[in-house]
Amino acid sequence: MRRLRRSERFRKLVRETRLTPETMIYPIFVCPGTNVRNEIGSMPGQYNLSIDNAVKVAREAEKAGIAGVLLFGIPREKDELGSEAYAADGIVQDALRAMRENVRDLLLISDVCLCEYTSHGHCGLVRHGDVENDSTLRLLAESALSHVRAGADMVAPSDMMDGRVLAIRRQLDSEGYDGIPIMAYSAKYASGFYGPFREAAGSTPQFGDRRSYQMDPPNAREAMREIELDIAEGADIVMVKPALAYLDIIARARESFDVPLAAYQVSGEYAMIEAASRAGWIERDRIIMEATTAIKRAGADIIITYYALELAGRL
User: Is residue 296 flagged as an active site residue?
Assistant: First the structure.
C-alpha cells in the first residue's frame, strides 16, 4: 500500500476526496452603519460588516472563485414579530441589492429565519410562551420573497418550523419565482456548537431554548425523516448542521438521498480550531484542511464554512 504514498505527486494522483472552492459557501454577517468592521470576539478573523464592507468581501469571494456567500442580518431594530426579516428595506435586503450591483459571478444566498430579528430571539412567533409553528410560516415565506425580490439567487430557511419549505415554495412560485432554488436546513440539531454565532448575530433566546423545534442530537433516523419531508415539499438542496459532530448523519443522508447535500461547519467548530491553534496545541492549517476534508469525505457536496476564503487561496 505504501507504493502510492511515496511522494506528494503519487498521493495527489490517487486522492479520493478533493476540496474545491466552487463547492464552498462563505457566511457573512451584515450590520447597520458605514465602514463597520467589528471583529467577533469568539470568532477571531470573522467580522460584523456594514453593507459597504460586505460588498468588498463579496467581491473578494467572487475573485477567489468560491460558489457563493450566505447572508445573515443584524437588524437596526428588533421586535416580537421580527419585522425587519421581511421588510423591503431590511438589512439583508439592502445588502442583496448592493451586492447584486457589484458582483456577477457569485451566488447570493440568504438565510431565512426570524431569530436574528425578534426581540425574544426565537425562530418563530411566540404565543403564551410557546413558539408557534403555522403562524410563523407566512412570515418566513414573506421573508424569502423579499430576499428574492432584492436579488437573492437562493434562499436557505434555517428556522426548523414544520412545513416551511412548502410555504416558501408556494409563495415564490405564485410570484413568478419558480426558478429560485431552496437550500433547506433540513437536519439542524439543537447543538451547543452555535454559541459564537449567537454572539455574532445577537440571537440568543431570551427565554427557554430551541429544543422544541431543532432536532435532538441523539437522533439519526429522525434526521432522515426530516430530509425526506423537505425534499417532498420542494427543497432543491438539503443540509446537515453542524458538520463535524454529525458526520454519521451526513454519510447516512448521502447514502439515502440523491439530491445535493450541504453541510455547515458552524461557528463553534471554527472557534475551537482558532482557540486551540492560538494556544499552540494544534497545527492550524493542517487541522482546517483535515476537518473540511472529513466533511467532504463523509458525503457533503457543498460545505458552508468560515474558512472558505482562506481555503480558496490555499487550494
Answer: no
